[in-house]
Design brief:
CATH architecture of the largest domain: Up-down Bundle
Number of strands: 0
Helix content: over 70%
CATH topology of the largest domain: Growth Hormone, Chain: A
Largest sheet: none
Strand content: under 5%
């Protein structure tokens, strides 16, 4: 089997779901970043402290539903036909984007925050479906290829949403988001049925009890739990790294915003390439064989990025990308970014494939919901820890070095997972 398995994009059992996921991730980022750009350059222009506070609050508002409603989302996805559930969720997205459009039109931060919270809830409900539906529509040898395409598409969609938010006015962003949500609903209507395995099981509406139950379910399988921990570390480390691109570029590298944009493009595109390449190496087999070496590549790339940026001597202040690229230290920095991102893509896809294939069919959506809960918790914990290190006096390159050394633990985790899946 070759990779990427682009033939899946021509099949109804995969293509509509791919489109729905791509457009949803695009819209999440279009809404969030259009709001932040509106706040930074219009509503709070000249008030950097308020704009910075809003960025932190926005992240919390978007991630809060993952803590609150992931368990409920997993139960619903295991109880209701997943194709029908996706259509309901996509209809709700159209209404949410209408709220967002109102917020952009009125330049109202409270209305936009409401829309952002609702989009976080939308993503929380959709999260368990997008992976638990794949084993129902794909053959076992197609799971790696399908997962790789989903991950590659997601990172490109995130990049596209962020870039579009930066080049069109806020009101136009709201209109675009409405149109994209409608296209997502049309794509959802083409998803084949995916009936529940445990449709008779009652839904526990107690959010705390439901959360504890799905976490216990996820921890009952060692391979599944190790995959959850690896996925959570990747997204936490990635969130910190991407958030530090702007201060790294403006401070340490003394370059313009366009350099940070190029970093973001390189990072997103190369993760997508790594996500697709790992399927070719594995020939479609669901295996953790390359997880340890990918984690090691991730760690080495971050550690060398710390060293290469720490030793960087700017030739000019507010350098353009061309001026930055002319610096002798620039190629090493870009190579480090490529190594980190490509290794990350190769690291994350097998973990998601193992999560799907090693979960019992009747529990798969709830286990993926547990993964989302742990992802959110680890991301918040790592962000708080890194914020504390910055407050204690570490600079951005040193922070990246800390991420690199911490990622060595992910390589050890990968070794355990490879042994676990090889024997069981």
């Amino acid at each position: 089997m070759s990779a990427p398995d682009l033939s899946l994009l021509a099949k109804r059992r995969f293509a509509p779901m791919f489109v729905v996921q791509f457009l949803g991730a695009f819209n999440d980022n279009l809404l969030k970043f259009a709001m932040l750009f509106l706040a930074n350059f219009v509503i709070f222009a000249g008030e950097a402290d308020k704009a910075g506070m809003l960025a932190a609050i926005a992240s919390g508002v978007f991630i809060a539903p993952y803590f609150l409603f992931s368990a409920l989302a997993g139960q619903l996805a295991d109880r209701i036909d997943k194709a029908r559930l996706v259509r309901w969720i996509k209809l709700a997205e159209i209404a949410i984007m209408a709220v967002g459009l109102g917020g952009f039109w009125l330049q109202s931060i409270p209305v936009l925050m409401t829309a952002l919270f609702l989009m976080g809830l939308h993503s929380t409900l959709f999260g368990p479906v997008k992976y638990s539906i794949l084993p129902q529509h794909l053959a076992a040898h197609e799971i790696m290829g399908g997962t790789g395409l989903i991950e590659a598409g997601t990172f490109l969609a995130i990049l596209g949403g962020q870039l579009l938010a930066g080049v069109i006015p806020a009101r136009e962003a709201g209109l675009a988001a409405m149109g994209i949500a409608f296209l997502g609903y049309l794509a959802a209507r083409a998803i084949p049925p995916a009936p529940p395995v445990r449709g008779e099981h009652p839904v526990d509406w107690n959010l705390w009890r439901g959360t504890m139950e799905v976490l216990r379910t996820a921890r009952s399988g060692r391979a599944v739990w190790l995959s959850v921990l690896g996925i959570s570390w990747f997204f936490a480390a990635g969130a910190v790294l991407v958030s530090e691109f702007a201060p790294l570029v403006s401070g340490t590298l003394a370059a313009r915003q366009e350099v940070a944009t190029v970093f973001l493009v390189i990072f997103s595109v190369t993760i997508a390439l790594g996500s697709l390449a790992v399927n070719k190496l594995l020939g479609g087999e669901v295996s953790a064989r390359y997880v340890p070496i990918s984690a090691l590549g991730l760690a080495i790339g971050l550690i060398d990025l710390w060293l290469s940026t720490s030793g960087f001597i700017p030739a000019a202040q507010e350098a353009s990308f061309r001026q930055f690229l002319a610096n002798p230290g620039a190629p090493r920095i870009l190579a480090d970014l490529v190594l980190v991102a490509f290794s990350g893509g190769m690291f994350i896809v097998p973990l998601y494939a193992i999560l799907q294939m090693y979960s019992a069919a009747e529990e798969r959506s709830r286990i993926i919901a547990a993964n989302n809960i742990v992802n959110a918790a680890v991301t918040v914990g790592v962000v708080l820890a890194m914020t504390g290190l910055l407050a204690a006096g570490l600079d951005v390159p040193e922070l990246i070095g800390v991420l690199g050394f911490a990622s060595l633990a992910a390589a050890l985790l990968g070794l355990r997972l490879a042994r676990e899946t090889a024997t069981g």
